[in-house]
Specification:
6-stranded mixed β-sheet, single chain, Sulfite Reductase Hemoprotein, domain 1, disordered C terminus, 461 residues, alpha/beta, Heat Shock Protein 90
């Protein structure tokens, strides 16, 4: 008996509420992307079913009467359907929360591991300083006594040779302990000042390589080469690199060329020599600690290039090496490329100005490192969760660079028609995939250093 009253009082209230919610959700749907858009769609489906059920109840009650129906009310069925949709949405959100929790736990675990490693490095550094001091004292005594013995007139030629070997060994051991200490000290660079890196290189050549000064060629660049850095550590860096080039000289007259390539917020320093070069296997191990290509009397500690890499990375840069022997051009020698954050005078372009770069952060490993790189080159990208959100980006005439994981990049091609100059970079397992818009095959595979250095050289904009 109360059912008609229920249908003519409660159902209109439900209808009014659902129509209002539908309007709000449709408005939000146009402004929302990613998983939130998916959740809103589920809400809309549930509300539409509920609204249709209530409307059907009103029509039936006003025409043939509810008593002739086999069920009490379609609104009840609509409510049940909406409940199912709500449960589905809750499950989706709950799964996302679980994934976020696991991701946060993994990041916390990684941070804790890095903290333990940092603590261990600090202890090693302190211990190394003490050990290094003692080794230098003992080696100085051994070297001094050996030289004193070597100065005796009664010593034979064979005896003098053995004394010389003792002195050389003592000096090598002292240098080795000094390199170990340098490696631990170079990991952190705090005392950075604004400096001209070209001046650092010129001073290094004049002070440490005066005898080979004519072998060096330094190509200046317009606009200056200013950056923030530690002058002493950068000087140490170039001493190591230039010494290696001098010691690797071939039978030809030594030539060492230094040039600069400036991109947007990035300064690439290229050092080329015409030495003996390296094999592919040697190039791969060049920056590993205790790895050396020097043989015989020139045998080194294997820490020089490792220290060089540590200094570059402590300045927010990257270093890579290429052997010209492997290029089948008849040339030989080594090419070292270093990319540093370039200092530019700040420009008032507005904090809301976006660069033609899109970062698809969903699924990117080492997201903090990617963001740090973008900060170094002073880029303000569009940050999106998934590739589907590219449709919401405002249309511009600029080339578009998209950074994302392999799965997201695979879905980017559907938006290529919006911008024929789309260029895609995808980081996957330590490598970068490059894909031109409209390509019908898998991305071409390049090494990370190759892609970045060529982009800076050929596309500085």
């Amino acid at each position: 008996a109360t059912l008609p009253l229920y249908n003519f009082t409660f159902i209109p209230f439900i209808l009014f509420t659902t129509v209002t919610l539908l309007g709000i959700h449709i408005t939000k749907l146009k402004q929302t992307t990613g998983i939130e858009k998916k959740i809103l769609k589920f809400h809309l489906i549930g509300l539409t079913i509920l609204c249709a059920s209530g409307l059907l109840d009103l029509i039936i009650a006003a025409t043939i009467g509810m008593s002739k129906l086999p069920i009490d009310s379609f609104t009840i069925l609509g409510t049940l359907s909406f409940g199912i949709m709500a449960s589905w949405i809750f499950t989706e959100k709950f799964l996302v929360l679980l994934q976020d929790r696991q991701s946060a736990y993994d990041k916390l675990e990684t941070a804790y591991t890095e903290l333990e490693e940092t603590s261990a490095l600090k202890q090693i550094g302190e211990s190394t300083a003490i050990i290094n001091h003692e080794i230098k004292n003992y080696m100085s005594s051994i070297s001094g006594l050996a030289e004193l013995v070597g100065s005796r007139e009664t010593l034979t030629g064979k005896g003098r040779e053995r004394v010389r070997q003792i002195v050389d060994t003592a000096r090598n051991l002292a240098k080795f302990s000094e390199d170990i200490l340098s490696l631990s000290r170079m990991r952190v660079t705090k005392d950075k000042t604004l400096l001209n890196i070209e001046q650092v290189i010129q001073n290094c050549i004049n002070n440490a390589f005066g005898a080979h000064k004519d072998s060096f060629t330094v190509e200046s660049t317009e606009g200056g080469t200013m950056m923030h850095g530690d002058w002493g550590k950068l000087d140490h860096l170039f001493v190591n690199l230039f010494r290696n080039a001098v010691e690797a000289a071939s039978d030809e007259a030594l030539r060492i060329a230094v040039r600069f390539v400036k991109g947007r917020g990035v300064l690439v320093i290229v050092i080329e020599d015409n030495g003996v070069g390296c094999t592919e296997e040697q190039t791969k191990g060049l920056f590993k600690a205790f790895y050396t290509t020097k043989k015989g009397t020139r045998h080194g500690t294997g820490l020089g290039m490792s220290i060089a890499r540590t200094i570059v990375e402590s300045h927010g840069g990257r270093i890579s090496a290429y052997s010209k022997n492997l290029q089948d051009t008849g040339e030989h020698g080594l090419r070292i490329e270093m990319a540093f954050p370039l200092y530019d005078e700040p420009e008032d372009t507005g904090s809301d100005t976006k660069d033609p770069v899109v970062l698809l952060k969903d699924g990117i490993e080492g997201l903090d490192a990617v963001i740090r790189v973008l900060q170094n080159v002073r880029m303000n990208p569009y940050v999106m969760q998934q590739a589907d959100e590219l449709a919401t980006r405002p249309e511009t005439g600029d080339s578009l660079c998209v950074l994302g994981n392999a799965d997201n990049i695979a879905r980017v091609s559907r938006f290529a028609s919006r911008n024929n100059r789309l260029f895609v970079l995808s980081h996957h397992k330590g490598s970068l995939y490059a894909l031109r818009a409209g390509a019908n095959e898998l991305p071409a595979h390049f090494s990370e250093e190759f892609v970045l250095s060529r982009l800076v050289e050929s596309h500085p904009q």
